[in-house]
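Narrative of activities, Objective 1.

The group set out to show that a structural description can be obtained from nothing but a protein's sequence at a throughput compatible with the screening campaign. Below is one input-output pair from the validation batch, recorded exactly as produced.
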Amino acid sequence: MNTEIIHLFIQIFILIALGFILAKLKFFTNEIKLSLSGFLLNCILPISIINSSQLEFSSSDFMAFITCFIFGLVYLTLVILFVPGLLTRLKMPPHKAKATGMMLAFSNSAFMGFAIAQELYGEQGLLYAVGYNIAFNLVLFSLGINCISGDEKFEWKSFFKKLVTTPAMVAAIAGLILYLLPFRFPSVVKDALASASSIMMPASVMIIGCELAMIKLKKIFFTPSSYIISAVRLIAIPLLTAFVLSLFRLDPKIIAVCTVLNAMPAGTTNVILATEYDCAPEFTTVTTTQTMVWMIVITPLIINLVNNWIL
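Output recorded for this entry:
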């Protein structure tokens, strides 16, 4: 296995363990977790996105950005439109089918995905990930909300309000504009942004450790249907992503970044939405947490396999 990947995931394992231990010792409380999550999503993630915009402009990188956006838009739309209906026909209860469709579509790409893409592929990898994340937000706040809420009427006003008040989305648009402009920040500003961005990976991983400490592990391992969803989320989807994108003979780094983002566990946003709309919240919580547990073992193997295949 690639030494860089081994080193990165050993770090991730240690940081998850630290988050878990600190939560068990009551130092990492739920209040701290929520505050830190908000800080990362609303402050550090936008800073990381702006930082990635300071790469030297390249037409090939810009096209890669657009490619990741298109892939994200197509993939997420197809999953949300067809998976819940398919699972319902296979006799899964409708509320679980909707929650499953959400978990298979919306991974932990903003937290874990951005951090790992940046660690493995640098600012260029993060720039590509931003393209995917724009599509992520567009589909989440439109088809995703409609899917889990069961509301067939589309609320354009609510959709645009969520987009313009989501810091990561605003930063993505601002970052794209900055990337296209012919000037860059002074080195001292770029260094400050890079320093702030470095908080993202360790803090986001420790939050996962904290979340694992707050749920009964017995529930995680004794929910059979969750194993199938975890296998699809962590194994089938990333491998299928790499295979399909390789058919188009795309740049290997584009394939690698999209695969990393789709190899992430189910996003905690799914738990928040499932709770808000009362759509199988316990099932979503257990399954999302289970994907986080198996990620520690499965994701490095998948990323290494894909890297050896395409890079």
